[in-house]
Every structure is written in structure tokens, then in C-alpha cells.
Model the fold of this input.
Amino acid sequence: MALRAALNSSGGRGYQQRSDGSAFLPLKPPPAEPSSLRSDNFFGDYFSVWGDFTNYKMLDIIELIELNLVPMKKYISLLIILVIAIVGGVYFMSKPTTPSGQEATSLRLKWFFNAGFTGDFVAKDKGFWNNEGIDVTIYEGGPNASPIQLVAGGSEEFGLATGDQIILARAKGIPVVAIAVIYQRNPLAFISLQESGITRPQDFIGKKVGLTYTDDEPLYRSMINKLGIDDKKIKETKVGFDYATFLNKEVDTYPVFENTQAIEIQQKGFKINIINPSDYDIQSYSNLYFTTEEIIENEPEKVEKFLRGVLNGWNYAIENPDSALESVNRFAENINSNSNRASLAETLKLVKPTPDTQVGMMTREGWQKTQEILLENKILAEPVDLNGVYTNEFLDEIYR
Done:
């Protein structure tokens, strides 16, 4: 048999034999002293976990056993690995399904559960995704969870991100593609306590302006540059994602989403001013659904089902806000219902600002403005091809 010949030949396939009679495929050149080989280091010497496991075939393992070259105590371990490999191979070659037979997929949000994701909660809670034949698991985002990394790496299949994040990812060669935009107006704003008298960007001079230096920085830079404000006269201060910094008056302004965190702060009894760069014609896409080029190419039906389900969720929320609030409260249970209700009302204004707005639809102009902000602030070295950044093909099909 092949393995016998390999063991009995000088060239062979690289198998060697230990003093205890077992065979192994060395991962590195054999050490000078045979005694340094550890016969009990099963994973390291036999397979190096994944690295050299593919060098073995089913018949090879059977021959090792027939030749009595694998000690009896390792029979069971070998069989366990074989079973795991076979079952795992079948799993990865098939599409995962739920017990109900629906195709399983996943969505990674860009922040913690709140009313800003109402359409997603409604699509899940009211069964709009199930009606399309898919079962979507929704995962929270947060400062330590990057939807783009998780989707590009295959951990999730769909995600939410800002336009600048998607453009910058494409510039780095990461093949993610936007398939719909939910917020037609970017809700990122800077808040100040009403008592501070800071009501416009010009009032930032001499003040401590909090910045997370993430998606807030491009909008901030574009706003003050457009207004001719010298940033050297502003005390820019790095802050984290806990607005307690602001409430404790460690900074004079703080970046928030005006439809969520700003409302939570107001619900706590604080009176605030809201300064939104979009009021100064600084436009950049926010909260976009995206997936990978591979999924778009290989599973276009899944992409359309996902979008159709979530758009039904958003449209249902627009028409039935009280019922949608029930879904929001089930997911965002750590936020009181009054805050969720107020956030929901503001969020729906961002999603469908006019009666003629087609929920989710993106425009070339919107993407051009998003990219211009990155170029103007030298965050992006050169333009990327916007044809690869987004596609309306699934929205066009849905709205046809």
C-alpha cells in the first residue's frame, strides 16, 4: 500500500518512525537528538493542528492503524479528529439553516441596541425576514466591534457602517459594497449644555471640543474649514464613547447621534444645544447596509431577501410607530420606553424625510459628497471608484 511504500523507501512522502513504533510527518527538519521528539505531543507532531492535517488522507490514517504504527492510546483521538473533519467539511460546504428550514444569515449593527435600528428590530420581531425565507441573527455593535472587519472576515454576512468607513475600506482593498442607506441625513452632531451659550461652530473657539476621532472627525473638520474657523484656537480633546465625560463638564461639546444619545441625555433632564454639520451643508452618508462582493456575486437572492425584509420593517415602522415601539423595547430593553419613543420619532424623520423618499435609495451625488469630505481633509489620499463602493441593483428590483 502507498504508506508502506513511503515508509520503506528512502524518498517516500516524509513519514518517519519514532522509537515507540508510531509514525509522524515532521513539521521541521528532525532534531539532532531523537530523544527530543515528544511522542505524547499528538497535535504538534502529527498534524500541527490545521497546518499539516491536509497532508493526510483517510487511507493514510487507516494504514497507520493497520501497520500498528499509531499507539493504541491514540486510536480514539485520531477517530475523533476524522469525525470532526468530515462533519466540518459537510457543514462548510452547505448553507446553514435553522430548525424551521430557513436559511440562516446575520447582521452586525454599528452600535448597541437602540431605536436607531428600529427597522432591523421590526423585520426580526414581526417576521418580515422570515416571510422571505431567511432567519437573521442581529448582533450588537460598539466601539470594540467593527462591522466591516467582521463581515469582510466572514463572521457575519451583512453589516451597518458609515459611508466614509466603506470608502476607506475599499481604498484598502477590502471588498465590501453598500446596498442601501437608511439615514438620508447624517445625525452625527455636537451637543453643548444650554447654559454654556455654545450654539454654533464659531462658539467652539477657546472651548474644549470633544472628539472620538472616528466618524465625527471628518464632519467636524469640514464644518470648521468651510466656516473659516482656525482649529488651533479650539481645544480639541480626545474623548471615549461614554457621554458621562460631557455630563461631568470635562468637555464643552460632545459628539452624539441626535436621534439617540442626544435624546437619552435630554431624557435625563439635561437641556442641550445641538449643532449638526448637515445644517451647514456638510453631507455624508450614515448607516448603510453592506455586504461583500462575494455574497453579491454568489448569493444575490439572499441579498434581495435581506433587503426586502428590512425595508418592509422600516416601512412598517413608519406606518405603525406604536407597534414598532414594542419591537424596539424588546431589543433595547436597557433604555426606558420614553427615550425609545422619542428616538424612534426622530429616527423615522431621517429614514423618510419626505413623502416621496424611497427608503434605502442611494444617489451618486450623496456618495460624491461623502468622498469629497475625506479628500478635502486628506483622510483619503486619492479617489476610489464609486462604482465599486455601492450598488442600487437590489433596490431597483425591489421598487420596480
In short: The chain has 18 helices and twelve strands. Residues 2-93 form one domain.
